[in-house]
Amino acid sequence: MSKILPQWQAIITRESQQPYFVALQKTLVEQRKQHVIFPQEEDVFNAFTYCDLTDIKVVIIGQDPYHGVGKNNQPQAHGLAFSVNPDIKIPPSLVNIYKELATDIDGFEIPEHGNLVEWAKQGVLLLNTVLTVKQAQAHAHAKLGWEKFTDAIIEEINQNNNGCCFLLWGSHAQKKGNNINPNKHCILTSVHPSPLSAYRGFFGCQHFSMANQWLIKKHKTVIDWSVSPIRSDHQTRLFD
Predict the structure, then answer these.
(1) Looking at 43, 64, 87, 104, which residue is catalytic?
(2) How does strand 58-62 pair with strand 124-128?
(3) Contact indicator for 137, 69 with CB cutoff of 8 Å
(4) Is the pTM for the entire model greater than 0.90?
(5) Is 64 marked active-site?
(6) CB 21 within 8 A of CB 145
(7) What count of other Cβ atoms lies within 10 Å of the Cβ of residue 63?
(8) Which letter does DSSP use for residue 69 in this model?
(9) Which residues, in sequence order, are CB contacts of 16 under 8 Å at separation 6+?
């Protein structure tokens, strides 16, 4: 994993000294002795290694990491919301994100993998509100303290980034963005892209092109939403 970038590192260092964070880390140390925790320890802060705070252009907020494994017991999660490790079958919500991109962005071709590192490198912060989870137990680490940490991250962006676009999908993400300044940042909301809700407004939301249009107005470089092939011995595939 790459090194956490300086602005993020300063925030993480500050938060790590708070009582809630000390208690959170103590709990994680104890749980890792008895349970499999995802993502792997070195990937927990992966979202903060590709683009620093003031360079973020788009923020996409997820919930907690994927809690499953793929071939060879490889974890799905690698520290970026909605993204999975190479060679992992693409999860249903990301399948729907790709479907929306295919109708929203001219020339977008649905890839055969779900690794979104290329977005992160361009300034897309893929932030889960909870950064760890027990294997096969969704939301197992809700209320441990991660929510307070990610609230601090969002507030830092709100205050110290000169303007980015927040994509808030579903009530959970929208609640997380309640305190974002709409006069400074672009806020786009929709239902969650999961199969349970995508047909109720995610499909057709055009958030990806709208985000780029807003970036152009702010004289920022747009995001190239295309996802390049990853060379691999195994080809991932979409869920049926």
Answers:
(1) 64
(2) parallel
(3) no
(4) yes
(5) yes
(6) yes
(7) 20
(8) B
(9) 22, 25
